[in-house]
Amino acid sequence: MAANDLAQTLELPKRTVALVLAGGRGTRLKQLTDRRAKPAVYFGGKFRIIDFALSNCLNSGIRRIGVITQYKSHSLLRHLQRGWAFLKAEMNEFVDLLPAQQRIDEENWYRGTSDAVYQNEDIISSYRPDYVVVLAGDHVYKMNYAVMLADHAASGAEVTVGCIEVPRADASAFGVMAVDKDWLVTDFVEKPADPPTLPGQPQTSLASMGIYIFNREYLFRELARDVQSENSSHDFGRDIIPNAVRQGVARAHPFSRSGVVGSGGEPYWRDVGTIDAYWDANIDLTAAQPALDMYDQRWPILTFQPQLPPAKFIGMGRSDCGNATDSLVSGGCIVAGRVTRSVLFSSVHVDAGAQAERAVLLPYVRLGRGVRLNRVVVDRGCELPDGLVIGDDPLEDARRFERTDQGITLVTREMLARL
């Protein structure tokens, strides 16, 4: 890279504001989002899902960030205030909280993702950015946005869409981009039955990641136009991006160019929007060399974490002493039972004789004596009574708890109270 190109790449993040869309209901995560917004859902033993987008911003040099919230935001706002208040306003860096305030007409809350940005135009404009990066707050991945910014600036496009290459057979679950050889987006189709493919790669399609970079003036001109349309759903993916494609001003940016490669040799991105996907992504972390490398300090994931004592494993003279194999065990945990291929968040207690296999146990969960779990997600603060068995009888699990078609059981305090 030439010296001038390198200097520009380093400068671009300073001329950018990132907006993290964190206001969605997250209904596909069922009862996990009864009390919290999807971006505030716990992940990976000590993190929240939103920590990945925020950490990507900081690691990419973008230190002016707005988080747009709406539904069930208390848990999320508390996490941001406790864990992300370390940036220095005097150095022009911040994480601003942008809750729905009816700023425009005092009648409408945020009506969609693009309307949420439009209603904060005055705040965002006061930052005087040249570029606006719009991010979903509910995906798990590591990505260098500075690389995408450099591509965007060099291309002359008004908007650049982050895309991930997926097998054509799986592309029908996504919004899919058709591009020419120069990565100009020629078509955008939402969940197509016949997905378009990459030029010269008939088995590969480009799926939108919900990551967009806009030139600021173009963005707010389009948002002002869109807000006047009675037929619009005021959504980036459904309205703003398709219109940019029709105008011929949208470029695609492949994730393979800017994704941070972990120990698995490939950049990692997951939409953890269903119970099955959420469980799967957490359990993936228990592999000896997980595709998402949480231990790479060159691209750290930051979060709020309380001051807790180390995890403890108790034997008390028993031959079957407390142990955990192929598992993540966080601070404050006390394990007197057996844990296998599981993720234990902070302050989980596993009593003697209890067994957890392929379990995701959120903070302050307690497993009583003789409890046996297999393929479960247990929500924060649940206390499972002695002898409870989950994962052996599908019909009984479905009757008492939330069980998915793929056999993952979700347990909450409300479900336990009905036993």
Automatic annotation (TrEMBL):
Keywords: ATP-binding, Carbohydrate metabolism, Glycogen biosynthesis, Glycogen metabolism, Nucleotide-binding, Nucleotidyltransferase, Transferase. The record marks Q70, W109 as: Could play a key role in the communication between the regulatory and the substrate sites. Residues 309-411 form the Glucose-1-phosphate adenylyltransferase/Bifunctional protein GlmU-like C-terminal hexapeptide domain. One of its GO terms (molecular function) is glucose-1-phosphate adenylyltransferase activity. Pfam families: Hexapep_GlmU, NTP_transferase. Its EC number is 2.7.7.27. Residues 18-286 form the Nucleotidyl transferase domain. Alpha-D-glucose 1-phosphate binds at Y110, G175, E190, K191, S208. It catalyses: alpha-D-glucose 1-phosphate + ATP + H(+) = ADP-alpha-D-glucose + diphosphate. SUPFAM superfamilies: Nucleotide-diphospho-sugar transferases, Trimeric LpxA-like enzymes. Pathway: Glycan biosynthesis; glycogen biosynthesis. Homotetramer. Belongs to the bacterial/plant glucose-1-phosphate adenylyltransferase family. Involved in the biosynthesis of ADP-glucose, a building block required for the elongation reactions to produce glycogen. Catalyzes the reaction between ATP and alpha-D-glucose 1-phosphate (G1P) to produce pyrophosphate and ADP-Glc. This is Glucose-1-phosphate adenylyltransferase. It comes from Azohydromonas lata. The lineage of its organism: Bacteria, Pseudomonadati, Pseudomonadota, Betaproteobacteria, Burkholderiales.
